[in-house]
Amino acid sequence: MKDLEKIIGILKQRGFIYQSQEIYGGLRGVYDYGPLGVLLKNKVKNLWLKDIVFQRENIFLIESSILGLRKTYEASGHLEHFHDPLIECKSCHQRFRADHLLGGEYGEIKFKEGKALCPFCQGELTEERTFNLMFKTYIGPVEELAAEAYLRPETAQGMFYNFKNILNSMRPKLPFGIAQIGKAFRNEITPKNFLFRLREFEQMELEFFVKPEEAEKWFNFWVEERFNWYLKLGFKKENLKKYIYPKEELAHYSDATIDIQYNYPFGFKELEGIANRTNYDLRRHSEYSGEDLTYFDEEKKEKYYPYVIEPSVGIDRLLFAIFVEFYDEDEIDQEKRNVFRFPPFLAPIEVAVFPLLSNREVLVKKSREVYNLVKKDFIALYDDSGSIGKRYRRQDEIGTPFCLTIDFQTLEDNTLTIRDRDTTEQVRIKIEEIKDFLKDKLRWAGEDSNL
Ligand code: ATP
Known about the structure:
The protein is of the alpha+beta class. It contains 14 helices and 26 strands. A hairpin with a 2-residue loop joins strand 15 and strand 16. It is globular, with a radius of gyration of 26 Å. The chain starts with a helix and ends in a 9-residue tail after the last helix. The relative contact order is 0.11. Adenosine-5'-triphosphate binds at residues 154, 186, 188, 197-198, 201, 203, 270-273, 312-314, 316-317. The site of adenosine-5'-triphosphate has 16 residues, from strand 13, strand 16, strand 19 and helix 10.
């Protein structure tokens, strides 16, 4: 098993992920992204957009607000249903989700007179009570019911309450989709497992509206599309699994759900959920707002609520999976090496540029010229500190797939060496060929859509 603590250490040290507000002791369940983390996150978002939105003419991207009315979340059912069962230890005051405790997440638990005991101190536990996961706030200065607002627990509601706006402005025909990337907030009882269960996280969601009688077909279609997307990102098939929800485990809005699970260091767990949300959300928002949110089918000459198929993934959970999937250790010249073997199209830094010797001005000058050239087309980094070996190791540790080194021969014939992160092999290449070489190597071959 990969050493999670070690990976987390590297991610912090090298500027991917920081515990938020660590100087004050940290905010649990909330993380900040450093310079490399942001680069990687943006790449993942772009690959999702490319696949979901830009390769398909009937999917529209929106950005809706984070703050939501009480009414919106009454309609969506979140105020009534979005609860987790909370229990607390009367002695050590540790809190648990009852389903996690009884489901074995804390190992085997002891019972006394039929009642479960605290897995940490064997103390008595309180009765189960429900706890709403939404963050509540107030709009304006008065804290009254009418001013109550909520941070969205999912981006999806923005697609439903804007349904009519999209119909009127884009004039789409079924099937069509509305997509969004954005922050969501859940006051999770026990945030844990690094980026897996957060209180503030980012989702990439698609609401795909279909004719009711075609819902099952499109549900199966999206399960396959999304599963294949992970393979196209470079995940090994054996690290992914589909989990079909039994009826009693479905969310309040769902008729069928399949999770795509990833093999995290703590077992196979949900990475993405694909749900058939039926017409629940549009129907409820129509009822609560009084607006008619039906679709007029010109062929059938009738109005109805479309069904909705929703693939939804948390970016943070996905980045966590990417870190685990591509982290590796090997040995180069009898020296241990930490390396992120990100596929080149995912790498936060795409190419690094070095002078062979940092104390030779002619080499530094030429290297700067090459850096200025490549940074126009690629995410590039210039480094001339420490020995060349150390510089290679630093790039390996952040997953940079290619390093260009400028040496004395460069000054004579305008060639330089390009080093491959995975094989560590170096080949000579002409400066004018670098752009095509890198373009080819950094291309993502997953753009074909069969919608
Ligand atoms: P779980 O059962 O793990 O709590 P969920 O079924 O409630 O998750 P959904 O409501 O289906 O999750 O949310 C869609 C996606 O959003 C999930 O597949 C996951 O990737 C992401 N997600 C949900 N909750 C969190 C969280 N607390 N932290 C990070 N990502 C999350």
